[in-house]
């Protein structure tokens, strides 16, 4: 009787760990796409396009970019994402979770000074 709730909770934990790792990979992919651009507006579009390739399924409900910091001064782009996850075994009051991730990549398309 005790093993069933522990097993169901373990399924949720495995699901959260897996989707959290996927979210980190998507944040890194979006940051890499943004790092190839020369300004913030094109970097934002590139990161959004990279995130639109994310496959949604019964567990991953939504993934969105929450922040993009394109800083030519430091030469880095920072992308933050949030992924809405529906737990496979809903717990009363806790059927969804939000995983967040942030990735920092060096800007590789800095225009040459004149």
Distance between the termini: 73 Å
Q: How large is the share of residues in beta strands?
A: 35-45%
Annotation, overall tally of beta strands: 3
**In terms of quaternary structure, what is this?**
single chain
Give the rounded overall mean pLDDT.
Answer: 90
As residue ranges, the low-confidence spans are none
Radius of gyration: 18 Å
* Order of helical and strand elements: HHEEE
Secondary-structure-derived class: alpha+beta
Note the main sheet: 3 strands, antiparallel
Shape: elongated
Please report the number of helical segments. Answer: 2
What count of domains describes the coordinates?
1
- Side by side, the strands of the main sheet go 1-2-3
Helix-residue proportion: 40-55%
Structural features, described:
The chain is 40% helix and 36% strand. The chain has 114 residues and is α+β, with helices and mostly antiparallel strands. It has one domain. It has a 3-stranded antiparallel beta sheet. β2 and β3 form a beta hairpin. The longest helix is centred in the first third of the chain and has 33 residues, at 3-35. The N and C termini lie far apart (73 Å). 22% of the residues are buried. The mean pLDDT is 90.
What is the topological layout?
Blueprint: H1 3-35, H2 40-52, E1 60-71, E2 76-91, E3 94-106
Antiparallel strand pairs: 1-2, 2-3
Compact summary:
It contains 2 helices and 3 strands, in the order ααβββ. With 114 residues, it is an alpha+beta fold.
